[in-house]
Amino acid sequence: MQDKKRTWGKFILEVVFLVALFTLVQYFITTGILNRYYQINLTLMGINVILAVSLNLINGFTGQLSLGHAGFMAIGAFASVIMTTMLEYPFIIGIIMAMLAAAVAGFIIGVPTLRLKGDYLAIATLGFGEIIRVVLQNIDYTGGPAGISGIAKMTTWPVLFIAVVVTIVVIVNMINSSYGRAIISVREDEVAAEIMGINTTKYKVLAFVVGAAFAGLAGALYAHYFYIIKPETFNFLKSFDILVMVVLGGLGSTTGAVIAAMFITVLNAFLQEYAAVRMIIYALILIIVMIYRPQGLLGNKELTRKSFDRIWGGKHVSSTNK
Amino acid sequence: MSHLQINNLSKSFGGLSAVLDFDFTIAEQELVGLIGPNGAGKTTVFNLITGVYKPDQGKIYLEGKDITGLPPYDICKKGIARTFQNIRLFNDLSVLDNVKIALHTDVPYSLSASILRLPSFFRGEEKIHQQALEYLKIFGLDPIKDEIASSLPYGEQRRLEIARALATRPTLLILDEPAAGMNPNETRELMELINWIRDEFNLTILLIEHDMSLVMGVCERIYVLDYGQIIAEGIPEEIRNNKRVIEAYLGEEVG
User: Fold this and answer.
1) Counting one residue from A and one from B, how many pairs have CB atoms under 8 Å apart?
2) What average pLDDT does the segment A226-249 reach?
3) Which residues in chain A touch residue B71, judged by CB atoms under 8 angstroms apart?
């Protein structure tokens, strides 16, 4: 009974927080406090959060090193644009088709490659990511290497906000369930998981498909904000970008992925003028994190209200002890 | 009818035959030991039974049904659970979560119910939580349910592994050197525990053990494996006096 009350209390608090955050940003946008430059970065931030949280499901929770996330993003981007710009369906249909197409691609790629382990899987997914890009470059229907331009801008703040919230809620709820425990057991010890009755292939593919679907969503949002999409945008470096966010945040920490995605977006915005050194700074950050904090900012822990309580509670206790 | 029957099982790695023409049978609720010198192929037999390895030839029947070559998760669902010689817990997870994972085969809600947090999810999680706690209580692990598995002392890790195996609701429990690294006191406690869980859960138990006092103390029948082949089978008294067994363990007498 008490527990139930607490669950509801927490839920209401979360909803209030989200509504407040949404309204505040919406207010800043309508009053023009957030100018166009900030809005672009805000959108990129949202898209990066979706990408990082979804890749973290595959790399962090399932422990399967995938380097082809940008490929699924590309499929989502092109699938949604075909639906909205070429076939003139509403944006929501574009988004649904983007997620479906990316999920199907995730399934087709996942079933054969997820038998591989570690570095072999990484190379196979890297290869598939590149195949997707090269195939898109050679399809005339989607404009070949030039891609598609003249895409209507439909990724508004409400759409972005809902997409980010849905992504996080779905993945967090999935992980905090028996299905999530099965997924995590694959990362912990595949042989032991199989012996405990977990069909590890099934859960690897499940995580891969769900992760791919949300990468597709990110692709759709991206396409409908930046007017033009080219296959080249979704190259290996983009996959690498997302991987950096996940590793920086801590493999297996959703809050870590969110924080790292936001941090990297801000960093990118600052480094825009020095495009040449951007990758150097990236690499340096990775090296430094790997040396001093190999488990990432948050390790596999989550940042919750409890952790704040602990930090402040701890201070409080020590001050009363004096 | 025998609970588990193995006919003619063979497995080789490269040119080395790890298990050769292995015949074995265990009756329901029997407690059988499998012993043999290091490298005799005992763990390979366990890996063949639980589906970790596929046999080169031979058949394995569980309650009369052929389970040869099935994947491990299927064999688990059919009622065989095991522990590992070198403990394989889910190290980064809590004691409680280790057991909860073993309960996943019977998960009482759907994936969509968990994503949408439907009432069936909360009811199901509560049920899983209570069941997991019960298994921990049996092994006295409930006070440390929130500890990380890898932080437990050795003996508790062993007990947690057995608790986790039991949570898959097996009819046949396979223990791979459960007393490894335990002192005589802990071994005696473990013997009592093994006997008790067999009666409590109506289990058939097959165990590999190096510790002779444990094997002779609890097992009703013993198989002796050497170089991948059965060299003796019988009740503990027979095995103790079997010439070939003594030779296998201590070497041949000279002269």
Assistant:
1) 98
2) 93
3) 194, 199
What is the residue-wise DSSP string for chain B?
Answer: -EEEEEEEEEEEETTEEEEEEEEEEEETT-EEEEE-STTSSHHHHHHHHTTSS--SEEEEEETTEE-TT--HHHHHHTTEEE--TT----TTSBHHHHHHHHGGGG--S-HHHHHTT-HHHHHHHHHHHHHHHHHHHHTT-GGGTTSBGGGS-HHHHHHHHHHHHHHT--SEEEEESTTTT--HHHHHHHHHHHHHHHHHHT-EEEEE-S-HHHHHHH-SEEEEEETTEEEEEE-HHHHHH-HHHHHHHH-PPP-
Q: What is the DSSP letter of A152?
A: -
- Looking at every residue in chain A, the average pLDDT score rounds to 90
Domain assignment present for residue B157? The answer is no
Does pLDDT of A316 surpass 60?
A: no
As for the ipTM of the complex, it is: 0.91
Query: Which residue in B88, B111, B117 is closest to A192 by CB distance?
Result: B88
Which residues of chain B fall short of a pLDDT of 70? 252-255
In a domain, residue B104? The reply is: no
Is residue A150 less than 8 Å (CB to CB) from chain B? Answer: no
Identify the CATH number of the domain in which residue B34 sits.
3.40.50.300
Chain-chain contact of A178 with B50 (C-beta, under 8 angstroms): no
Nearest CA in chain B to A301: B92
**A152-194 tens-digit pLDDT:** 999 999 999 999 999 999 999 999 999 999 999 999 999 999 9
Say yes or no for a CB contact (<8 Å) between A185 and B90.
Answer: yes
Give the pLDDT score at B241.
Answer: 85
Contact B102 A174 (CB under 8 A): no
Report pTM.
Answer: 0.91
* Number of domain units in chain B: 1
Write the residue in A173, A191, A300 that is nearest to B114 by C-beta.
Answer: A173
* Res A318 pLDDT > 70: no
Determine, yes or no, domain membership for B70. yes
Sorted by where each begins, the domain ranges of chain A are 39-235
**Closest CA–CA distance from residue B82 to any residue of chain A (Å):** 7
Of A7, A178, A189, which is closest to B104 when you measure between CB atoms? A178
Inter-chain CB proximity B72 and A179 less than 8 Å: no
Q: Does B109 map to a domain? A: no
CB within 8 Å of B180: residues ≥ 6 apart: B85, B210, B211
Write down the pLDDT at residue B63: 94
Q: What's the gap in Å between the CA of A258 and the closest CA on chain B?
A: 19
Residue A174: list chain B partners with CB under 8 A. 111, 114-115
The residue range of the domain holding B16 is: 2-79+170-250
Identify the residue among A177, A187, A206 best suited for mutation to test binding to B, counting B beta carbons within 10 A and taking the highest: A177
Using a CB–CB cutoff of 8 Å, tell me whether A1 touches chain B. Answer: no
